Amino acid sequence: MVQLQSHAGDALAGPIAWYVYVLRAFLALIVLGACAWGAMALAYRFPGPAPARDFLIALWVALGVAAGVALLRVSAGVPLKGWPLAFLVAMILLVGWWQTIRPSNDRDWAADVARLLDPRQDGSHVTLQNVRNFAWRTETDFTPRWETREYDLDKLESADLVLSYWMGPAIAHTLVSFGFSDGQRVVFSIEIRKKQGQKFSAIGGFFKDFEATLVAADERDILRVRSNVRGETVYLYRLNIPPGQLRKVFLGYLERARDLRHHAKWYNTLTSNCTTIVFELARIIAPGLPLDYRLLLSGYFAEYAYDQGGLTPGFTYSQLAERGNVVARALAADDAPDFSTRIREGVPGDDPKVMP
């Protein structure tokens, strides 16, 4: 009887040991992932001098690796050494410090994001203070112009989705341009609020390196600087939004501007960026819009909008993309007063002469 119990115990010990090892391997992966995140957080946000930062990162990585190795090397029934517990304590301290880093609207901002949009509304009459209308010659040579403009929401008649590609086909900056029957246009764009001398970093966008700002701008500023000055590839698509719904989307941008003006927020490459706000506002008029990988890979967002019926009907997506490439027309128009009209020549939905 004792011998049978011994064999049964041995048979059970094998599966238990395997499960314990798999669990500890999973925990080791979590530890190493947290170790990588912590190292990047310290690299981007540690407030002290570089030598102290580098020493702290090295110490943190060593502790994480020691904890991960300790989890992998032990077997079932063998107690863990102190490294995982030490790493857990260090992680709690790191997260506590991370939560103390708050966004601010009071920094030495770069010139093109120096001012926050200030919207005012009285019925259908909207006044936008701090509309950007810079005259760009190069990225560093420009004439700053901040203007106050007025719009009549009863004349709001169209919206265009603009994608500007600067880092391959999967990544694009997303903007929305609203058109009014009196000929006025205004573009809204969620952007990083760079400090003086700061450059954009997609990785930094995960680690509280940038605040977010909502820029309202003239097309000859915000579109032309991308196509004509930075050499980006810019596509424009007419959005298929009923006029009655346009106002909700427009007012959604104004609400976001007010929120950012009174409560500074972090820009996040994944969760709070130029594309996610468009999706959030689109859900105001179509709550059932599905989540999709193209919301993260923003370069494919126009294709997602097409699949949801959000672009001009009657054309294939390839036709819309081919005719929506505005770069050649933007270069030809340059700083002409009719820049907005000329870049839309041949664009389905924007140019009435273009038929399916």
Molecular structure report:
Helices cover 43% and strands 18% of the residues. The chain is an alpha+beta fold and 356 residues long. The chain folds into 2 domains: 17-73 and 80-100; 118-343, no CATH class. Mean pLDDT is 91; it is low at 1-9. The protein has a 5-stranded antiparallel beta sheet with strand order 9-8-7-6-10. Strands 1-2-5 form a 3-stranded antiparallel beta sheet, with helices on one face. It holds the Pfam family Lnb_N. It comes from Pandoraea morbifera. Keywords: Membrane, Transmembrane, Transmembrane helix. The chain crosses the membrane at residues 16-43, 55-76, 82-98. This is Lnb N-terminal periplasmic domain-containing protein.
Features:
single chain, 43% helix, Lnb_N, elongated, three-stranded antiparallel beta sheet, 10 strands, transmembrane, alpha+beta, disordered N terminus, five-stranded antiparallel beta sheet, 356 residues
Blueprint (SSEs and pairs):
Elements: H1 2-45, H2 50-73, H3 83-99, E1 118-122, E2 125-132, E3 135-136, E4 142-143, E5 146-152, E6 156-165, E7 172-180, E8 185-193, E9 211-217, H4 219-222, H5 224-229, E10 233-238, H6 243-262, H7 274-285, H8 301-307, H9 317-324, H10 327-333, H11 339-343
Domain Lnb N-terminal periplasmic: 143-299
InterPro entries: Lnb_N
Transmembrane segments: 16-43, 55-76, 82-98
